[in-house]
Amino acid sequence: MAEKLFDLFRKERKRLELALAEASARGCTDHSEIRRLKALHAAVGDQIVSWKRDLYGSEPPEMATAA
Fold first, then answer.
1. How far is it, in rounded angstroms, from Cα 31 to Cα 10?
2. Rounded to an integer, what distance in angstroms lies between the CA atom of residue 37 and that of residue 12?
3. Which end of the chain has fewer CB atoms within 10 angstroms, the N or the C?
4. What does the angle CA 21 – CA 37 – CA 64 come to, to the nearest 5 degrees?
5. How far out from the chain centre does Cα 45 lie?
6. C-alpha angle 51/22/33, rounded to 5°?
7. CA-to-CA distance for 13 and 48, rounded, in angstroms?
8. Are 16 and 41 in contact (CB under 8 A)?
9. pTM of the model
10. Residue 59: which of 37, 50, 17, 31 has the closest Cα?
């Protein structure tokens, strides 16, 4: 079950990365939309790191960057 949640969060993080890249490529002037996407991306990444820490113990520095 946990792996399915990780997979969903990874997919969502990738979707947000693509949305940010697309907004940047088209020269999006809606700064609130870009801030929203960045905040969501950070929240998803933080949740992945938190769950990995809960499952595997204290995080080594490379785990934070890998998530």
1. 24
2. 11
3. N
4. 85
5. 4
6. 70
7. 10
8. yes
9. 0.71
10. 50
Q: Two tokens at 58?
A: 């204290």
Give the CA-trace dihedral at 30, 25, 66, 6, to 10 degrees: 70
| Count of alpha carbons within 13 angstroms of residue 29, beta-carbon side | 0
pLDDT at 66: 58
Query: What secondary structure letter does DSSP report for 57?
Result: S
| pLDDT tens-digit readout, 19-55 | 999 988 888 778 888 899 999 999 999 998 888 888 7
Residue 1 in this model has a pLDDT that exceeds 80: no
